[in-house]
Amino acid sequence: MRAVSEGLLLVGASGLAREVLAAGITGVVGLLDDDVRLHGEEIGGVPVLGPVGDAATRTEQLLVCIGPSEARREVVRRLARLGVPDDRYARFVARSARIGTTSEVGAGSILLDAVVVTADAVLGQHVVVMPHGTIAHDAVVADYATLASGVSLAGGVRVGEAAYLGMNCAVRQRLSIGAAATVGMSAAVVGDVPDGETWAGVPARRLGEKK
Ligand SMILES: CC(C)(COP(=O)(O)OP(=O)(O)OC[C@H]1O[C@@H](n2cnc3c(N)ncnc32)[C@H](O)[C@@H]1OP(=O)(O)O)[C@@H](O)C(=O)NCCC(=O)NCCS
Question: 91-200, superfamily in CATH?
Answer without folding.
Answer: Hexapeptide repeat proteins (2.160.10.10)
